[in-house]
Amino acid sequence: MNDAEPLLAWYATLTPETVARVGKFYAADAQFRDPFNDVRGVAAIEAIFRHMFEHTEQPRFFIDERIAQGGQVFVTWQFLFRLRGVPYQIDGGSHLRFNAEGLVVMHRDYWDAAEELLQKLPLVGPPIRWLRARFRVPMPGAGRRHLTDD
What we know:
alpha+beta, Nuclear Transport Factor 2, Chain: A, 6-stranded mixed beta sheet, 5 helices, globular
């Protein structure tokens, strides 16, 4: 069993000053994986969060829901930040596995980098949006409306 609440509270209040506490929540050989990184060890995980603060403005996490079973938790979240003053929001989820001491040994983030981030960027966005449109399945009787249209 685990109590993920202290870890989730840390994420919700993460600042450049509190990044160094990563070792309080992650095992020494913990793995962290997201669409851009696959690292092992507390120092590497800490470096990812430091990089986040260096390259984004006002980054913050909002924890939505959590499902716990045994030594693992799945959490849905929103990550809000700014790049050059432009606001972004990424919706995703994290699968966390804990060891017997209650430390995270595996952290895997799931989110669609193309949809949530890349297609919103000026240079790479148009070709990604074009590709997504090419592979969409048209909905019968809906004109040009597709499954992913809002």
